[in-house]
Specification:
The chain has 110 residues and is mostly helical. It has one domain: Helix Hairpins. It has four helices and no strands. Helix 2 runs antiparallel to helix 3 and helix 3 packs antiparallel against helix 4. The longest helix has 31 residues.
Length: 110
């Protein structure tokens, strides 16, 4: 029983990897199953956040340097730029086609 209490009190690398795996799975599920473009973008953000958790956790528990935090900052900057550009594209699609459902955008091929 004391091992279980200690396991709950002291988060280790396994805890962060489990959380990251759950976030990654939810992100992939959102990307593959949603038809709404905004929800797909939210799924991409979840996947990027899972990668950030992995970078920081491995940096803290394996190398004990700040390399993971630096890479995570670059990923956050990339995610912000991706969100801004993708939202601009979604707004333009909604203005032209009156929908943000990805399945209904077959007119883009022409």
């Amino acid at each position: 029983m004391q091992d279980f209490i200690h396991w709950l009190q002291a988060p280790g690398l396994n805890h962060f990897l489990i959380i990251s795996g759950i976030l990654f799975s939810l992100g992939v599920f959102a990307i593959l199953t949603r038809r709404n473009a905004i929800m797909v973008l939210m799924g991409i953000e979840l996947v990027l956040n899972a990668a950030n958790i992995n970078f920081i956790a491995f940096s803290r528990y394996i190398t004990n340097t700040l390399d993971g935090q630096v890479i995570a900052i670059f990923v956050i900057i990339l995610a912000a730029a991706e969100a801004a550009i993708a939202l601009a594209i979604v707004l333009n699609i909604f203005q032209n086609f009156n929908t943000v459902n990805v399945d209904e955008l077959n007119q883009l091929r022409d």
